[in-house]
Design brief:
There is one protein chain. By secondary structure, the chain is of the alpha/beta class. It has 15 helices and 16 strands. It has 2 domains: 112 residues, Roll (Urease, subunit C, domain 1); 288 residues, Metal-dependent hydrolases (TIM Barrel, Alpha-Beta Barrel), CATH 3.20.20.140. Strands 1, 2, 3, 4, 5, 14, 15 and 16 form an 8-stranded mixed beta sheet that branches. The protein has an 8-stranded parallel beta sheet with strand order 6-7-8-9-10-11-12-13. The relative contact order is 0.17. Bound molecules: N-(iminomethyl)-L-glutamic acid (NIG) and zinc ion. The site of zinc ion has 5 residues, from loops. Zinc ion binds next to loops.
Length: 411
């Protein structure tokens, strides 16, 4: 089955296969073709170019995109969408003056979500999570990473990861699973963090590996959660099971997580609301992608990742949602792209690069996703009729998406 998209006002992010990420000044360039066509066969992009070089007769189906822009679907490389219930009450507590850290230190936060998840059946957890996945797909997400980390027992972590595996089996978009046993220290190990670390390394990891449930390993490297020493232990253990790191660092404090991530050749270091000059130097000449999560900064009222400092130093940057019940109850990549422009002073070109090609790098799907490239999957956003691509971040809060295609099929 072939489909041709014709009269595309502008086809964005057209790249040769060799480009796997863009850094520094390259991020300001968003290659595109105006008045374009795009030809797909089944689930794959097979041709594209200027309209005057095409012939309609060749496709089974024609989609007229007059006035509309076509771009690769968003790639969301950092989410926690498998969770139970919500944390609305903590939201109200924060409005009334408590901080995120205070709520956590009173036993709320991640531990609150863990209790809810432990008391939820695998079937119910799947049902709650698939709703969120379907919602983000409608919002234009065409590849997603999902973390465990609200289980915090062997049984509950495995339950989360099995739900992620079921989502992988049932849906056509690529899903990567990250094992985040070291997300918080459970109540039972309050005074025995090392005991919990031992449980992660000696019980959880072997069980996760036995069932092949994870692609990556993660840890919340932060004051009051897990130290650099803990991070080294977890990443070392993950390495033994062939799990590359994607880690939470520098959300509230700089404790050395970036250096440790780079030392272990992490695929990405995520959050970076605070970042030092040394961190920036360490990231240069590394293969680690810095990832910013602006919706988290928005929701918690914490600093935004200093994107200008990072990009102007010549580094790449990716954007993701961090969709989770505590710090970011939203999986809207359109909002992320807008907020990156509005609050982090990224240009529309930089933000779109960060949410597509660089985001695909941050979850290792650049072979197949993140750009309009012959041979890549036809995961696409077709916008409504809009004046230009800059209108996407400009008209924040407006739904500018007409349709989303996953593997060549309209969803
Ligand atoms: N910071 C650590 N983990 C999540 C939030 C977890 C929660 O509050 O439930 C994050 O990335 O923001
Ligand atoms: Zn997160």
């Amino acid at each position: 089955m072939t489909t041709i998209f014709i009269n595309i006002k502008e086809l964005l992010q057209t790249r040769p296969r060799e480009i796997t990420k863009v850094s520094g000044l390259q991020m300001k360039v968003l290659p595109s073709i105006k008045n374009a066509y795009l030809l797909i066969k089944d689930d794959e992009i097979i041709d594209f170019g200027e309209m005057n070089n095409t012939c309609f007769g060749i496709a089974d189906e024609v989609v007229d995109c007059t006035g509309k822009i076509v771009l690769p679907a968003w790639v969301d490389s950092h989410t926690h969408i498998v969770y139970a219930g919500n944390r609305e009450q903590e939201f109200v507590d924060r409005i009334n003056g408590l901080s995120y850290e205070e709520i956590a230190s009173r036993g709320g936060g991640i531990l609150n979500s863990a209790e809810k998840l432990q008391n939820t059946s695998e079937e119910d957890l799947y049902k709650q999570s698939k709703k969120r996945l379907e919602e983000i797909m409608q919002l234009g997400t065409g590849a997603v990473e999902i973390k465990s980390g609200y289980g915090l027992t062997v049984e509950a972590e495995i339950k989360m990861l099995r739900v992620i595996r079921r989502l992988k089996d049932e849906y056509k978009l690529p899903i990567k699973a990250t094992f985040l046993g070291a997300h918080a220290v459970p109540k039972e190990f309050k005074d025995n963090k090392d005991g919990y670390m031992d449980q992660i390394i000696n019980q959880m990891l072997p069980a996760v590996s036995d069932e092949g449930l994870a692609d990556y390993i993660d840890i919340f490297c932060e004051k009051g959660y897990f130290s650099i020493e803990d991070t080294e232990r977890i990443l070392e253990a993950g390495k033994k099971y062939g799990l590359r790191a994607k880690i939470h660092v520098n959300q509230f404090n700089i404790i050395g997580g970036v250096t440790t991530g780079v030392k272990y050749n992490a695929l990405s270091v995520d959050h970076l609301e605070v970042i030092s000059d040394d961190d920036i130097e360490v990231l240069k000449n590394s293969e680690t992608m810095p990832v910013a999560l602006p919706s988290c900064s928005y929701f918690l009222g914490i600093p935004y990742t200093p994107a200008r400092k990072i990009i102007d130093a010549g580094l790449p940057l990716a954007l993701a949602t961090d969709f989770n019940p505590g710090s970011t109850p939203s999986g809207n990549m359109n909002f992320v792209v807008s907020t990156a422009c509005i609050k982090m002073k990224m240009t529309p070109e930089e933000a779109i690069n960060a949410a597509t090609i660089n985001a695909a790098y941050a979850m290792d799907v650049t072979e197949t996703h993140g750009s309009i490239t012959i041979g890549k999957k036809a995961n696409l956003i077709v916008t409504k009729e809009i004046p230009s691509f800059g209108f996407l971040p400009y008209a924040f809060g407006t739904n500018n998406i007409d349709s989303v295609f996953i593997n060549g099929q309209k969803i």
